[in-house]
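Aim 2 progress update. The chain analyzed this quarter is reproduced below.
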Amino acid sequence: MNKTIHSVLIILFSTIIVQNVYAQNFARASDWKKYRKEVILQVGVSQFLGDLGGLNKIGTDYSPVDLEFSLTKPSISIAYRYKFAKNFNWHSSFNYLLVSGDDKLTDEIYRHNRNLNFKSNIFELATRAELSLFSNKIGHRYGIKRTMSNRRKTRSWEFIGFIGIGVFYYNPKGLNSAGDYIALRPLHTEGQGLPGGPKQYSNFAVSIPMGVAYRMILSKLWCVGVEFNYRKTFTDYIDDVSTVYYDKAALGAAYGSQSVQMADPSLGDIPNATAPDGSGLGAQRGDKQKDSYLSFQITVGRFFPPKRGKSRLRSKF
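Predicted structure tokens:
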């Protein structure tokens, strides 16, 4: 019986010691409030997933394997994050991305023969909710200058998953035979607004940003990290390609020869690939799946910790 009591006391005593050590290794529960307000600068790269270019086989467009890495372009963002709770943030940002696509870069015969290309600046305003795993713990080390006194060093990080909503402006431009980039929307390349054609698309569209981020907190003022942000959109015209070829004679009569040239710069390797079929329906130029774009960025954040109130020395008398 005495051995049992002795063993229980040892286990209880050991548990108390472990818990005390564990508690000492973590900062106070409210320490996350030091990082509540943050201004962020993000710099990185962008990519586009749409109708143009892609892998050297059919049926892979809009898939991550269809990314054309040679068309990786720059992106930059300015953002503000507010931490409502330890594991919940709100993040708003202004984002600039350059995206492009080119059928010349794929060996898939139909897309290569189509020979379309585009580039577009994207200016996006977005806001999102973030759920995070926030760790803020402290370790111990000794400083010789302080006669081996115990000092604390904070090691903090945050892993974030997010989803939100944004609105963005885009304006696709194509490279013509003279080597100049010209705006494609005014050319109505798929017969937008003409009889039987689709309605004209807007330069503005809605995006759904979603992704993950990771950051390490270096000090009370600074943090660094990385972010992957994928945007689902509700437009198929970021690359000016969506439906079928429109009748070239009608297109030329309405919008001129440049419209015809940019609507169908095909190489002619596949006979009648851009001509109407026997029933008069236009040949496929694109598909109706919505475009998307993404970015991968390095982030630098600057915190604005709460100001400590001035304490007054009160007399005891």
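The chain has four helices and ten strands. Residues 31-303 form a domain with the Porin fold (CATH 2.40.160.20). These observations will guide the mutagenesis experiments scheduled for the next reporting period.
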